[in-house]
Amino acid sequence: MMILNKKAFFFILLIGIFLMAGISCTRHTESARSFEREDLESVQGAHNANSIPQEREKHSKIRRKLRNANAQTAPSQTVDSETLQLTPDQIKTLGIETVTVKQTQLKNQLDAMGKVLEHPYRKAIVSYAFPARISEIHGRIGDWVKPGDKLVTLQSEEVGIAKSEFYKSNSDFDLAKVNYERQKRLFDRGVGAQKDFLEAETDYKVAEANLNAAEKKLHVLGFSEDAVRIIAETHQINPVITLYAPIQGKIIRNNAVMGAMIDQETEILTVMDPTILCSDAEIYEKDIARIKEGQEVDLRVPAYPGEKFNAKICYISDVLNEETRTITVRSEVENDRYKLKPGMFANIQIFTTGTRDALMIPSGAILEIKGEKIIFTREGDTFRSKIIQAGVSLNGNTEVLSGLRAGEEIVVRGNIQLQAELKDKDISLGVIH
Q1: Total structural domains within the chain
Q2: Bigger pLDDT: 73 or 112?
Q3: Out of 50, 139, 203, 399, which residue is the most buried by the measure of CB atoms under 10 Å away?
């Protein structure tokens, strides 16, 4: 009797468990149907109100509630919103191209910020050491000149006085020379007095010294040997002097104004050779041992993204800046195409000794989305987006520091289309980013 009662008790208990499970399922079903009814009513209300934004927001919230309810009833159904599966026709339509990532050898380098400067040995300031007036301008800003080309003609009182003194000294010298030669012939024949000969010799040497001093004064004023010879031949007292280009280059500054007065502090013109420029970079104290003269440098400027300019270290400062704990490193930059301009900021990459292993991928394979660098990998017909950490960029390629392995296949063309497809998929699944 007791055994029968125990069997009956377990049988009744089992029936109760099944009844409770059925009631729970019924409640979940009714809850889902309730959400569906609310969804339908919300859609109809939004339609009648001409899709009012508040109604659409309410409709969106109800849809999320419905999805959450369905997810609770079916927890095993999950969706990965970071992958895409495409058919061969879709891959062809999107124009997707891929490459396999390989490990390469990359030169060790040191990155720094720098500035493009005028080369100090390829620039000349044309000025005049004495007061003068500009009477003629031969060169204009932007003109190319070579050594000896006329730049500007000046009128100067100092020039007039110096020329007069030179003419007088030249005449005195000629007269003293003739008298000396005559007295010497007489003295040699024994008919001239020694006293007269010695006086003539002294006058000749004094005249010669005065002529040399007058000639030197003309050189100080800016006259060359050829110009002095022409002055001596023409005997024209004209208080003008022409200034010539001292180097080959381009006139980059021109302060010359017709009729303007100048003095020793006036910079009339500036000539610069733009084919070779300089770039100064500040290198931290901890990196000084890695820097040597003659090392190759790549220089890039924001004005020409993706383009590099060849340079070479020509000078390393001997003084450390105690405030910034840096030293100045100067490089000579080739500028044959005249694209670089003094004053530009530049990114400096100094190639130091040795190499290292690196994963380099085409820079076009990287998308920047919300501050993150994204690439797409391919496994068969599945495409997956990955976040990577990028390193240096060289010759159209970018180093990947993390987030990718050698041997993986990445998308190099069509990644923008893949991102658009992934976004559309997220919207259809209700994934909010």
Answers
A1: 4
A2: 112
A3: 139
